[in-house]
């Protein structure tokens, strides 16, 4: 998240816009941009793309850091700690007496080298440090180094062949569980996307690895509700509500339903009631899992 926020601040500087200027040129408020730029809230992917376009940077480079930050926030990017048993062996090695100058002779063998185990541990530690620095530098370079200014587009529905690992459930075990907590939201497919009459967006997302589908929304208002269901199947209806300004600035997800290729899934949006009036019209759309 810190690397993403630093990159966004750099891009904001490139645009020459103030927070008020960003709010005027994007669908996101001044207070929202303040949270995004200071790393308080993970911004929607669309906000990152909008800032990249304003700065004249290729969108693909910006999204790379956003995906890393989203993975870290969901736990998918966590790096397991090195177990204590991997530390250098602590068994005392027998001391090797060194010959005195008086007793040294051409036939005296040299002192033995350090134990192979200790050399191996030191080597691995050095290599790990070098790799960590190299990966960080590569990611930042991809995002921030000057590159072609030609406009780029990254389709949100583009499929990926990357297979995430470490998901917490599969199939029936995932029914009614969080896609983020179960690590099923790593590079999912977009089944369908819909813009509501109020300007909010909805998507149906599918994880091939977990065999599940869920809905998400962004750009809405506090009080908006979404619902995802599998028509004709009981127990597979899950909903979510935009409950705070932070929710409105980011994504809100439903729980997951188990779905196989060919399954038709429905998502519905219920806008919040306006002052002095009732809620707006409910909007629904369908998508077929591929």
Topology:
Blueprint (H helix, E strand, L loop, with lengths): L1 H14 L3 H7 L4 H8 L7 H11 L3 H16 L41 H29 L44 E7 L5 E7 L4 E7 L6 E5 L8 E4 L3 H5 L2 E2 L3 E2 L5 E7 L12 E6 L2
Antiparallel strand pairs: 1-2, 2-3, 3-6, 3-7, 4-5, 4-8, 8-9
Tags for this entry?
290 residues; alpha+beta; five-stranded antiparallel β-sheet; four-stranded antiparallel β-sheet; 9 strands
What Rg is obtained from the alpha carbons, in whole angstroms? 26 Å
Strand percentage lies at 15-25%
> Which regions contain 5 or more consecutive residues with pLDDT less than 50?
78-96, 98-119, 141-164
Q: Give helix % range.
A: 25-40%
The major sheet is characterized as: 5 strands, antiparallel
Q: Could you say which structural class the secondary elements and strand pairing correspond to?
A: alpha+beta
How many strands? 9
Calculate the mean pLDDT score and round it. 75
User: In sequence order, what are the helices and strands, one letter per element?
Assistant: HHHHHHEEEEEHEEEE
Count of DSSP-assigned helices: 7
- Shape descriptor reads globular
For the record, give the distance between the C-alpha atoms at the N and C termini, rounded to a whole number. 32 Å
């Amino acid at each position: 998240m810190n690397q993403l926020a630093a990159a966004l601040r750099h891009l904001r500087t490139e645009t020459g816009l103030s927070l008020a200027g960003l709010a005027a040129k994007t669908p996101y408020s001044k207070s929202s941009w303040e949270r995004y730029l200071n790393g308080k809230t993970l911004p929607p992917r669309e906000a990152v793309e909008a800032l990249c376009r304003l700065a004249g940077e290729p969108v693909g480079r910006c999204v790379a850091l956003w995906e890393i930050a989203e993975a870290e926030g969901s736990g998918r990017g966590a790096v397991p700690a090195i177990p204590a048993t991997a530390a250098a062996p602590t068994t005392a090695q027998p001391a090797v007496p060194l010959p005195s100058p008086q007793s040294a002779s051409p036939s005296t063998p040299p002192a033995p080298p350090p134990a192979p185990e200790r050399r191996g541990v030191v080597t691995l530690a050095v290599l790990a440090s070098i790799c960590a620095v190299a990966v960080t530098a590569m990611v930042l370079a991809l995002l921030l180094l000057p590159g072609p200014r030609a406009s780029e587009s990254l389709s949100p529905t583009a499929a990926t062949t990357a297979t995430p690992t470490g998901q917490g459930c599969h199939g029936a075990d995932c029914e009614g569980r969080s896609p983020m907590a179960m690590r099923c939201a790593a590079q999912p497919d977009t089944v369908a996307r819909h813009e509501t009459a109020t300007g909010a967006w909805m998507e149906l997302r599918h994880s091939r690895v977990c065999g599940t589908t869920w809905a998400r929304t962004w750009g809405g208002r506090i009080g908006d509700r979404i619902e995802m269901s599998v028509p004709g199947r009981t127990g597979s209806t899950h909903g979510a509500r935009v409950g705070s300004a932070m929710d409105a600035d980011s994504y809100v997800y439903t729980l997951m339903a188990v779905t196989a290729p060919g399954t038709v899934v429905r998502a519905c949006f219920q806008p919040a009631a306006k002052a002095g009036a009732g809620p707006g019209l409910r909007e629904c759309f369908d998508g077929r899992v591929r």
